[in-house]
Specification:
Arc Repressor Mutant, subunit A; 5 strands; three-stranded antiparallel sheet; 51% helix; alpha+beta; elongated; 5 helices
Length: 136
């Protein structure tokens, strides 16, 4: 399964607001574009996440079970990006291990820090863990 953080954030917003239109407005995208992202995520996980009609959106049982897991991973990713950004601005060399399977997204984000990224290395460790080493 290869989910993007954008797909996961869309899933969270649709579940929270129970509206494709409202979630799309918050992400500055069209409802149809948002629907495509949800459909792609559903295809990747292998089951439907929402019961939906033109006037109704509700997480299915599977979506409700997945919701806290996705929320935890997105929160971990946000915290890691914020921490790495602070460390990079302070010019510290720091090694962090992130159990979040979406750590690959940190490298492009870290490259936009104020001082710039001198080098980055991501190495898989035990399939479920990724070690990220940033040199600033």
């Amino acid at each position: 399964m290869d989910c993007t953080s954008r797909q996961l954030r869309v899933f969270l917003l649709v579940a929270q607001h129970r509206s494709f239109t409202r979630a799309a407005e918050l992400l500055f995208m069209t409802p149809s574009g948002l629907s495509v992202l949800v459909r792609e995520l559903e295809n990747q996980v292998g089951f439907r996440l929402f019961d939906r009609t033109t006037r109704f959106v509700e997480p299915r049982a599977q979506g409700t079970q997945l919701l806290p897991v996705v929320q935890q991973h997105v929160d971990q990713l946000d915290e890691a990006v914020a921490r790495i950004g602070r460390d990079a601005q302070e010019g510290r060399l720091r090694r962090n291990s992130c159990s979040c399977s979406y750590a690959f997204a940190l490298v492009p984000m870290a490259s936009t820090t104020k001082q710039g990224l001198v080098g980055a290395h991501v190495a898989a460790k035990q399939r479920r863990h990724v070690r990220l080493l940033l040199r600033v």
